[in-house]
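Here is the promised in-class demo. Please do not try to memorize the tokens; focus on the logic of going from shape to residues.
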């Protein structure tokens, strides 16, 4: 009986479909020391942009497969094959044969010795707002068109590096500020600098002299302070968005002239508020990119 089961297993393994196999490495010119992170393989049928720019929670998203790498040395290849978890397709074995634009990216992690005694490896915000495809220091390969079939084997080299974000210039109406949190710095064991705080005053009229100054506003704000006075100048779309935002998104105007019209809102947050994206797909994609789905 055992021999018959073993023979059946051999037959099943023989007819199992082969999956593409990609070997990914980086040269020592990009890093002379081993790196940790989330290694992503990106495939796209759309030539309009790099594959790394086409991964999202919409129905038009392209394909991404990922594995965690730890102490990956320069010149040493990591392999993404049938065992790698993918989004929105589960496995490379399900990939239809055809021509694809292929790219690889390493989302680099840092080792953090937290004050609570835990040591973790996480991608720190480098000024881009936690966008893995734009994070400075991440390594990636050039996009190449490859015919992918059942037994395709290809090697990709992470020869490119996302450059640092250039400093933003202040204008008459916009000022950019970087603030380091001492509390978070002590907790994480590494400098924590928040994304550039954006103070905007362009195109707005000051509140009347009788408005409540910022220094007298309590936190959290009352419901009556969540909306601007009717005479305040602002586009209709911004006013509609402000009513949909949670209360914590409103901050007092530093100049002491009432409540500002619209605080800085991420594009992803705007999409979530306006309901233009599927929150379930967004959650799955976010967990996958962080390595929480395997």
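The designed amino acids, position by position:
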């Amino acid at each position: 009986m055992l021999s018959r089961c073993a023979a059946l297993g051999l037959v099943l393994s023989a007819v199992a479909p082969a999956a593409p196999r990609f070997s990914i490495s980086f040269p020592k010119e990009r890093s002379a020391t081993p790196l940790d992170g989330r290694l992503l393989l990106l495939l796209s049928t759309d030539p309009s942009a790099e594959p790394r720019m086409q991964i999202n929670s919409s129905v038009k998203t392209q394909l991404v497969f990922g594995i965690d790498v730890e102490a990956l040395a320069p010149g040493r290849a990591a392999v993404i094959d049938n065992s790698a978890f993918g989004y929105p397709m589960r496995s490379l074995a399900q990939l239809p044969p055809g021509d694809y634009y292929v790219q690889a990216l390493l989302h680099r992690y840092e080792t953090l010795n937290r004050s609570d005694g835990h040591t973790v490896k996480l991608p720190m915000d480098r000024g881009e707002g936690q966008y893995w495809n734009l994070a400075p220091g991440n390594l990636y390969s050039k996009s190449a068109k490859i015919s992918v079939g059942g037994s395709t084997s290809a090697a990709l080299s992470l020869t490119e590096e996302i450059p640092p974000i250039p400093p933003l210039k202040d204008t008459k109406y916009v000022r950019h500020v970087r603030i380091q949190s001492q509390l978070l710095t002590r907790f994480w064991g590494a400098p924590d600098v928040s994304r550039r705080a954006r103070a905007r005053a362009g195109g707005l009229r000051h509140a009347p002299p009788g408005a409540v100054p910022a220094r007298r506003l309590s936190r959290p704000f009352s419901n009556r302070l969540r909306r601007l006075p009717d005479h305040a100048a602002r586009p209709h779309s911004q006013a509609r968005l402000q009513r949909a935002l949670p209360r914590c998104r409103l901050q007092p105007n530093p100049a002491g002239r009432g409540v500002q019209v619209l605080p800085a809102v991420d594009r992803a947050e705007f999409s979530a508020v306006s309901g233009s994206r599927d929150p379930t797909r967004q959650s799955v994609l976010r967990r996958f990119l962080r390595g929480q789905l395997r």
